[in-house]
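name: query_chain
kind: protein
chains: 1
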Amino acid sequence: MNRDADPGAVAVGIDLGTTYSVVAQVDANGQPQIIPNSENQRTTPSVVYIEGGQIVVGSVAKEQTQLGGANTIQFIKPFIGRRRKRFIVGGQEWTPEELSAMILRKFVADAENNIGGHPITHAVITVPAFFTEQQRKSTEDAGRIAGLNVMSIINEPTAAALAYGFDALGIDKTVLVYDLGGGTFDVTLMRISGHTITMLATDGDVQLGGKDWDERIIDYAAESFIKNHGVDPRQDPDTLQMLYGQAEQAKLRLSKLPSTRLTVTSQGLADTIDLTREQFEDMTDDLLSQTETTLRLTVQQAGMDFKHVDEILLVGGSTRMVAVRRMLQRLMGREPRHLLNPDECVAQGAAIHAVMTQMRLRENGAAVPRPLVREEHLERFRQMEERLINSHTLGIIALDAQGKQVVVPIIPRGAHIPRKEIKTFRTSADNQQQIRIMVMEGENTNPEACAQLGMCLVKGLPGDLPKATPIEVCFECTQDGQLHIQARLPMIHQTVHSQIARTMGMTEEEILSSRQRIESLTIS
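structure:
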C-alpha cells in the first residue's frame, strides 16, 4: 500500500531547533498536543552521537558531549543550506542535512510509538523567518532524507502566532514575536484580526542565538582558568564540550538565581568559578543590543511604534533570561508575559498549520492523510487564514545602461504573498534565440552579494527579433513560497512558461543516496 494514502497515517508539526527539537500533532478534539520522545521528554536535544553504524540522538547523545566530543555533533541548524559544509563525526563525513535527518528520524520514530504505532508520513517543518530560500530548501531536503513528505515549510514566528491566535479566534491585536532560539534570532510583527494572521514585517539573524550567550560564559570561565593556572581549557575539545554543558546550565540558573558556580577541569587541574547575573549581563550586553536594534528596525519597517503593539509573544528558551524581559519592558512600557510555552508553541503552531495544509491538499485531490480532528472541530481550521510576507527580495540578473550585470528586483522583501509581479526587460542582441533568466535572492544589486536560486532558459524565440525587443518577465510566488516564472513577448503575442531549475539544495539523486545511507543505520 502507498503510505501516502495509508488511512492509518498521520501528519505532524515539527520544530527542528538548534538546541532542542519538538514534535506535535492535533488531536481529535482539535487541540495541538506535544508528543513526548522515548524518554518521556517533551523536547529532544538536537545532538547526534555516531559510532560505527550506531546513531544516538537526544539526551544520551548530549550526555556524551560531556565525556568526549569526537563522536558528537550539536548546533547543526545554523549550517543547513551551506552546500559545501561537511562535519566529521564518528570518523565519517556528513552534511548538515543528513545530520538533521537523523534527528528527525529519531523523534518521528518515538512519536510513532507514542501514538499507537501509526506511521507518520507527512509533516510541516518550521524555520526562522529570515531563512533564505536555500536554507528552506535544505530543511525540506532533510525532511525528505528522513523519509517524510514535507507538506510545507512555515516560519517559526508565524507558527507561534497560530498557536496563540488559535485559542483566541475573533481577537483584533498587533502582536510582536520575539524569537530567541539556541542558534537563530527572529523578530516578526503581525496583525491578528478575526481569523486572519497577517505578517507586517520581519527581520532576524540566523547566526545569533542562545549559543552566543553560552560562549560568553565559556570565555569568562576559560580566562579565569588561564589566569589561575596558565592553561586554556578551550584548547581541549573534550573540555570544551563539557564547558558548553556547564555554560548552558549556568545560563538557566541565572534566569532564576542572582549567582551561580562553574567547575572547570583541564589537564589534571581544577577550578571553581563564580558568576553573578550582573557579570553575565555585562558580558552579553552587546548581544542583547543586537536583538534590540533588529527589534526597532522591524517595528519601523511596518511604519509603527512600540505603542501600537498589543501583545508580545516570547519564543525560544533564551527568552527566559531576565535581561531580555527587562529590555522588552523598557521598550514596550509593560512587562512581557509568557503567554505560551516558549519551548513548545512553535511545534504546536506547526501542527495546526499541518491540519490546515492537509485540508487544502485533500480538497485539491492530493493523497495526504486525513486529519485526526473530528468533523465538528474542523471549522476552526477552515476559518483560519495566513497572509505571509517575502523575507528576501527576489529578482533576476540583467544588464544596466553600461552593460554591467546587476540584480533587478521583481518581488521586493516584505511583499505579501501570494504575489504576482511583472517587469519588462529587453533583448541584448539582434536575432537572439534564447533568454537565460538567472533568479537571485538578496537585497544588493551586485550579483556576487546575492544568492542564486536557479536558472530557467526560454528557448525557441522567433528569428529576426531586433535588439531591445521587450520581454515581460512574470514572477508568481505562491502561498507556500514556490516560485513560478513566465516570459512573454508582447510584440508577437507569444508566452513561454518555465519551471525554475533550482541550483540550490540537493538533487533528487543526492537526496535518495543520503536517505539510503541513513536507512542503513540504527538510530536510537
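note: The chain has a mean pLDDT of 88.
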